[in-house]
Write a structure and sequence with these properties.
Shape: globular
Strand content: under 5%
Order of helices and strands: HHHHEEEHHHHEHH
Number of strands: 4
Structural class: mainly alpha
Helix content: over 70%
Number of helices: 10
Distance between the termini: 15 Å
Strand order of the largest sheet: 1-4
């Protein structure tokens, strides 16, 4: 029983990361009907950004509290990935929005290769390690819970709650839902469709950046190839939960994480 509870905690931690990535897939598919296969590499880019920011902070401000470092890491990573995803949508996806469905798919795969190779060239092919940021561990019999697991699960829950509120109770959320239902009709009633889609890409990238920072926090290492496998698993989670459904993406991510650890 203790082993089951331990693996359950590990699965929830991993599933939280997958759920944050899966939201990006399901948002983009829901609003414009395409699968952004570069999203996994955006997650990897967020992890690298968080790692580099942490190394700079520790070199310049040795006594900075861990909570402040983690906050700055996530903010910078969110800014970097949001800029990348906004640029990708504007330059690569928007011109192909009205073309046949295979063109955006091929373009998304091309952007994934571009980001992966860009990081490989600029950061090198080797794994990049990060010193342990949060090392506190609590023991309950044979069950151990690390503080970083608690941080990941709580932060994911807070972000998902905030995002649910944004989608369901704000003007931006109404614009997103209108664009998802009928882009042409939404534009006729005054919704700026292009702006709404761009913001959706930005939000998805920001959530992927948080997932990347949490991934680095949990495993302490990141590589240029780390966008592929978590990206595929998160896409599977989005499909499993019903792609286009936000709660489904989160539930699918948790299911994939639990299956991976309990198997």
């Amino acid at each position: 029983m203790e082993y089951f509870i331990q693996q359950l905690l590990n699965g929830l931690t991993l599933g939280s990361i997958y759920g944050l990535i899966a939201i990006g897939y399901t948002m983009v598919y829901g609003i414009i009907g395409m699968v952004n296969f570069a999203h996994g590499d955006i997650f990897m880019l967020g992890g690298f950004s968080a790692l580099l920011v942490y190394l700079v902070l520790t070199a310049m401000f040795a006594g900075m509290p861990v909570a402040v470092s983690l906050f700055v890491m996530m903010i910078v990573a969110m800014a970097v990935t949001s800029l990348w995803n906004w640029s990708i949508e504007k330059m690569a996806y928007r011109p192909l929005r009205g073309s046949f469905r295979l063109a955006p798919l091929i373009t998304a795969i091309g952007m994934s290769i571009l980001i992966s190779n860009f990081v490989q060239v600029t950061q090198g092919p080797r794994n990049k390690a990060i010193p342990g940021m949060i090392t506190d561990v609590y023991s309950f019999g044979n069950i151990t819970v690390s503080l970083k697991q608690i941080v990941i699960i709580v932060l994911t829950a807070v972000l998902l709650t905030g995002f649910w509120y944004l989608v369901n109770h704000t003007s931006l959320g109404r614009a997103q839902r209108a664009t998802e239902q009928d882009r042409k009709m939404a534009s006729l009633i005054g919704v700026d469709v292009d702006r709404t889609i761009s913001i959706t890409f930005i939000i998805g990238a920001a959530l992927a950046a948080v997932a990347g920072a949490m991934y680095v926090l949990q495993y302490g290492v990141v590589s240029f190839s780390d966008g592929f496998l978590p990206g595929v698993k998160a896409f599977t989670a989005a499909v499993l939960g019903g792609i286009g459904s936000l709660p489904g993406a989160v539930i699918g991510g948790l299911m994939i994480g639990l299956i991976e650890t309990l198997w």
